[in-house]
Design goal:
Strand content of chain A: 5-15%
Shape of chain A: globular
Largest sheet of chain A: 3 strands, antiparallel
Oligomer: homodimer
Structural class of chain A: mainly alpha
Distance between the termini of chain A: 57 Å
Radius of gyration of chain A: 20 Å
Largest interface: A-B, 76 and 78 residues
Strand order of the largest sheet of chain A: 1-3-2
Helix content of chain A: 55-70%
DNA sequence: TATTGTTATACTCTATAACTATA
DNA sequence: TATAGTTATAGAGTATAACAATA
């Protein structure tokens, strides 16, 4: 355990309380990290997320977009890529001929397994930067906030004072 | 019509372990939240971060870019806006006539004070979604990760950097 | 020669709107 | 009429490269 701490990047004290800024920095770090972890598999973190959600159940494209948190037109591009790579395919839904189910191909399943290994390792690396007792709390907190609605927040600014 | 149920956003179980995806979702939430909190003041979260860092000390533009975590050309746009709004100004640095110090104007200081109130309220709202004992841990963990380097991570996959 | 600030440009990402075929 | 999927397009955001002034 190194006592000497890397101080190359000065922690800007004034921004330490800025929750939005902190999240932005950490988000960028995790994105670079996950992108690197998935590079060999030639998929991006987003493609991985879509593929993972698709494997979890038989979802239509609009469902998938809602679940992963993407615009439906943004999902289109990702799905085109995944289909092109042979990792997923659109299957007609008999009960509604407008809709399509996104299915994961065997190749996609195989890739997801390999991706899980890489991402588990990557996550462990990131969490290792935290004190042991903070890790599980951090993941739990993130999970809770990730499922939060705008509506769940107290209307701090919606009730702006009448001038 | 379907009645709006709180279950619109199902916590997608399969993605609950995806650290990168979780951060992306939470980051998006906090961005919307901070943007809303700062809307009345007519500045974006990024402008606020730059202004805050500028107030913290006499920094040149390249320093400021490094501290806040922006590309220097990206910072240019933000600084142009801040200067246009009369919140900050570029001042020549006598010791190095190439460089410029970014200074916060009185109007900028005043705005920062009002912003702090709004953001403190906003942050409290977000943290209120977490169990009481998780809040301080969460902030601490974020602060630690925000200061982390790529190099601090165990080299799990980082053997090959992009080009 | 290297660095600061700057501009112009290109590229990525994402959202908007419109269209089709079904319901 | 409304909805699922699709396409084309525009916009914001960001990065890349080149340039002038200074070190």
């Amino acid at each position: 355990m190194a006592v000497t701490v890397r101080q190359e990047t000065d922690p800007p004290e004034a921004l330490a309380d800025d929750l939005c800024w902190l999240m932005g920095r950490v988000n960028a770090l995790l994105n670079r990290e996950a992108t690197a972890a998935l590079r060999e598999l030639e998929i991006t973190p987003r493609k991985h997320a879509v593929l993972t959600a698709a494997r979890a159940g038989e979802h239509t494209q609009t469902d998938l977009a809602r679940i992963v948190g993407l615009d439906k037109t943004t999902l289109m591009v990702t799905l085109d890529h995944l289909e092109q790579m042979g990792l997923a395919e659109r299957r007609p839904l008999p009960s509604d001929r407008r809709a399509r189910i996104v299915a994961v191909t065997p190749a996609g399943e195989q890739l997801l397994d390999r991706a899980e290994t890489a991402l588990t390792q990557s996550r462990a690396g990131v969490l290792s930067l935290l004190p042991v007792d903070e890790r599980v709390v951090f993941m739990h907190a993130l999970g809770r906030l990730a499922c939060a609605h705008e509506d769940d927040l107290p209307a701090c600014c919606a009730s702006s004072l009448p001038d």
